[in-house]
Amino acid sequence: MDLVSESLAELIGAPVAMGADEPVMLGCVRLAAQPESVGEARSVTREVLGRLRIGEVARENAELVVSELVTNAVVHGGAGDDAHVLLVVMQSGPMLKVKVYDTTPNLGPRPAPASDAESGRGLVIVDALSDRWGATSSTYGKCLWAEFDVGVLLPSGPEA
């Protein structure tokens, strides 16, 4: 089973009505495991969340967390011309959830960054900005995810 099929299989049968407690996929994109994909992931997240009525701070936090998770996947999730990551943005009740899959199953330890290190703080940022986050193994690799309690997610547009 490939990465896209595996992720989408988790969502089969999800209702399409907003506000349901079952997961609803809002967006999904496959990206090359390259540094330039981080900006593309932020843009996709911004576009998806722009269709919803959520606060600016929540939107910016989600975009930054996606950047950190995709960066983590690019740096630690496998390399090569055919390496890729999958970004999934979903909603379940009041929770917005972002998931980033890569092809490496190793969850590995999370050492604290040295005080003078120029990198290694991505998951510290994820922890600070999200309500919950974690990592899971899958048959394809691993998934790092983060959740944000943003209240009821509604499509943007004219007030009803």
From TrEMBL:
GO molecular function: ATP binding; protein serine/threonine kinase activity
One Pfam family this sequence matches: HATPase_c_2
The keyword Hydrolase is annotated on this UniProt entry: no
Top-level taxon: Bacteria
Keywords from the named record: ATP-binding, Kinase, Nucleotide-binding, Serine/threonine-protein kinase, Transferase
Domain Histidine kinase/HSP90-like ATPase: 32-146
Name of this chain's protein: ATP-binding protein
Lineage: Bacteria, Bacillati, Actinomycetota, Actinomycetes, Catenulisporales
